[in-house]
Amino acid sequence: MTRESTLRFGAQTDEVTSLLRIVNMVRTGEATTRPEIGRLTGLGRGVVTQRVDQAIEMGFLADGEFAPSSGGRAPRTLRFCSEQGRIIVCAFGALHLRVGIASLDGDVIDDRHAAWDIARGPAETIDRALEMLDEILSAHDDIPVWGVAVGIPGPVDFDSGRPVAPPIMPGWNDFDLRRRFEERFDAPVWVDNDTNLLAFSERSRRPDERLDLIFFKVGTGIGAGLLSHGRIHRGANGAAGDVGHVRVRDSDTPCRCGKVGCLEAEAGGWALVRDAQRAIEGGATGALARHAEQGTAITPELIALAAMNGDALAISLIQRSARLVGESIAALVNMFNPAVIVVGGAVSSAGEVFLAEVRQRVYELSLPLATRDLSIVRSLGDEKEPLRGGAEMVREQLFEATFPRWFAAGRPLIREVMPVAS
C-alpha cells in the first residue's frame, strides 16, 4: 500500500472503524471466516471482502484452512498474522529478574531468569536485562519488536512510565525506563507495577471478559492488581492496589518505605525473614533453625516450604502473615466485591497453611453478599506468569488502546503510539 493510498484510507473513518473491528475479531477468534464477519458486523458480502483484502494487503490477516461446510461451499478461514512481530517482556522483582519474548498472540516463545537485587539500581539492572534479551534474540529469527512491557516491584506513573518513590528501589525514582528500551528496540514501551502484570496473566486464562478479580501478591513485598470488568484499575496516578503500605492496627514496626506499621512490615516476606531470624537467635528450634545453623540463608520460600513440612516456627509465621493479609483482603472485598481473589507470591506458596487462614479471615470480616459467590484460590505459581501478563498488557495497548493511531503504518511506531513527554 502506497503512502498516498494509506493516507486516503486513513481519512475514511467508517472504513477504518470496520477494518479495525474485523482485524480484532479474527485476532481474538470472535470470527474466523468471511461469512461469520458479515453476520456479526452486519456488513454486506462485498464490503467484508474489500475490508478483508485490505487487511491481508497490510499484513494483518492471511487466509487459513477451509472451515467445515454447512451444506454449500466450505468457507476459507482467516488467521491473524501473529508471526509478523514480537513482544519483549522484562519482569523485575525485588531479588530476581525475568525476561522473555512472546508472539503477538501472547504465547511466550523463550525466556531467561536470573537472581538479581533490584537495589543495584536502574543502570546495572537494565544492562543485565538487555544482555539476557540479546542472548534470547540471537537464538531466534530477526523479527521486528512491536512492543515492550516492563514490570517493576513499586508504584508506577503509567502515563509516563516512571517509578514514583518505590520503597525498595533506591535510585529508581522518576527514572526514565522507557528511553533505554525504546532506544534498544525502536518500539513503544509500557511500564507497569508487577502485580498488574500478574493480574493480566490471570485474565488471559479466564474467558469472562467482564471479570472482577484481585491478584494479591505476598512475596518479599505485598501488592494487589485489580481487574474491574476485565480492565486493570490503576487509579488516578497509578497507585491503586498498593496495599502493602496500609496501616496495621496497633503496629509501630518500621517499614522500608520510611513509615511505620505497614502491612508489608508485618506480613511481607522480608518481615517474616526478620522475625524468623529473631526467633532463632532467641532459641527457637526446628527445621528452620537447623537450616540457619548450617549457614543456609533464610528466605520467604524456605519459610513457606518449612511450614508445609510442619515446622512450628514457620507455621506460626505463615499463619500470622495470612491473618493480617486476610484482614486487608476483607476490606478490599467489601469495597470492590470481586468474583475471584487469586493469592500469589513466595509466602503464599505455603499452600493451604496460608490460604486456609486467609479464607477464614475474609469470610469472618466481609459482608455476606460480597462473599456469596467469591472464589479464593492460589495462583498457579508458574514463573512465566509475569511474562504472559506483560505480553497481555502490550497486546491490550497495541490492539485495543492505540490501534487506530498506527495501523496505517502496518506496525506500531513510537511517535504514533506513545504520548509526547511533557
From TrEMBL:
Matching InterPro entries: ATPase_NBD (IPR043129), ROK (IPR000600), ROK_cs (IPR049874), WH-like_DNA-bd_sf (IPR036388), WH_DNA-bd_sf (IPR036390)
Gene Ontology molecular function terms on file: kinase activity
Keywords attached to this entry: Kinase, Transferase
Keyword Transferase: yes
SUPFAM superfamilies per UniProt: Actin-like ATPase domain (SSF53067), Winged helix' DNA-binding domain (SSF46785)
Pfam family, one: ROK
Record-linked PROSITE patterns: ROK (PS01125)
Alphabetical list of PANTHER family matching this protein: GLUCOKINASE, ROK (REPRESSOR, ORF, KINASE) FAMILY
Family: Belongs to the ROK (NagC/XylR) family.
Protein name per Swiss-Prot or TrEMBL: NBD/HSP70 family sugar kinase
